[in-house]
Amino acid sequence: MAKEEMLEFEGVVTDVLPDGHFRVKLDNDHEVLAYTAGKMRKFRIRTGAGDRVIVEMSPYDLTRGRISFRHKGVQLGAPPTRRQTFVRKR
Q1: Which residues contact 49 (CB under 8 A, 6 or more apart)?
Q2: In this predicted model, what pLDDT tens digit does every residue of 26-64 receive, in sequence order?
Q3: Is the C-alpha dihedral spanning 63, 48, 45, 53 positive or negative?
Q4: What string of DSSP letters covers 15-62?
Q5: pTM of the predicted model, to two decimals?
Q6: Checking DSSP bridges between strand 21-26 and strand 64-75, what pairing results, if any?
Q7: pLDDT tens for residues 19-36?
Q8: DSSP classification of residue 77
Q9: In the CATH hierarchy, which fold is given to the domain comprising 7-75?
Q10: What is the CA radius of gyration of the chain?
């Protein structure tokens, strides 16, 4: 296995922690601490508790990972939220 090769797992975000970190429960019942990837931060892709995500992990440390993808419209246990829009008056 090459050093640059990452392992990919699917899971569900269980906790939202400060500084863009998340606690993710993987499909194989392991819990990992994950952070959002740079492209997700750049394009302001929001991740919340209950979201289904793909986590990339190094084979050297299986307790930490990077969230590389959030599945659209799939939330477990969280009701759909309506986004409030603000209109600026001149």
Answers
A1: 13, 14, 15, 16, 77, 78
A2: 999 999 999 999 898 899 889 999 999 999 999 999 999
A3: positive
A4: EEEGGGEEEEEETTS-EEEEEE-HHHHHTT----TTEEEEEEE-SS-T
A5: 0.75
A6: unpaired
A7: 889 999 999 999 999 999
A8: S
A9: OB fold (Dihydrolipoamide Acetyltransferase, E2P) (2.40.50)
A10: 15
